[in-house]
Design brief:
alpha+beta, globular, Nucleotidyltransferase, domain 5
């Protein structure tokens, strides 16, 4: 894994832009802050005023001297869907993503957007071994909405090198603080109390 010296971590909400400059080599937070947005700039995770958002972001980069060209972006919670599903073991890679999309369509569990980005991770533990099926966790969000954030960031000559989601980030922070490995802590519920939402995530 490549660790860059300084990474700008960005989180956009309906009311704030929050940032943290992190030295990934030493795992040190160099700068952290937030700037309040004008009401209506972002609504339900969707950018409504791209020009204004870009101006505010540019001001943040200049004011706080965030000169690193590398950015990690948090996917807006409002547009994120996480679902655990059982799938045939033989389905892998891109075929697995196509399979999940078809499964959602056939079960009438339609997504709230037509341009879904789908990612998936294996979630089967040894005690759940099944000869024919495996458990996976599907993550999906809107391609159009994510592209709009990338466009705003790229206007300032920044490159988004990675993205993350808040439920996994909270768990990762907890594991790091307790010096635990990824599978050491299970059957745990995490809660996030935000400006206008309350997110509960259970890891089993």
């Amino acid at each position: 894994m490549l660790f860059r010296k300084n990474i700008i971590n960005l989180m956009f909400t309906d009311n704030f832009i929050k940032f943290a400059l992190v030295d990934e080599r030493s795992l040190t937070v160099r700068k952290v802050g937030e700037v309040k947005l004008k009401s209506g700039t972002i609504i339900n995770g969707k950018i409504m005023d791209e020009n204004l958002l870009s101006k505010i972001l540019g001001t943040i980069f200049r004011k706080y001297r965030l000169s690193s060209p590398f950015v990690k972006l948090m996917i807006p919670d409002q547009n994120l869907i996480i679902k655990k599903m059982r799938v045939p073991k033989y389905v892998k890679g891109d075929d697995l993503k196509k399979y999940l999309r078809l499964e959602l369509e056939e079960s009438l569990q339609s997504l709230p957007y037509k341009d879904a980005i789908i990612d998936v991770v294996d979630y089967t533990y040894s005690y759940k071994i099944d000869e024919d099926e495996k458990e996976v966790v599907m993550f999906t969000t809107s391609k159009d909405i994510i592209t709009s954030y990338l466009k705003v960031i790229q206007k300032h000559r920044k490159t988004v090198v990675d993205s993350f989601i808040s439920p996994l980030l909270v768990r990762k922070l907890y594991l790091f603080s307790k010096k635990l490995k990824n599978n050491d802590q299970r059957f745990t519920m995490f809660t996030q109390i935000k400006e206008n939402s309350h997110i509960l995530t259970v890891f089993d």
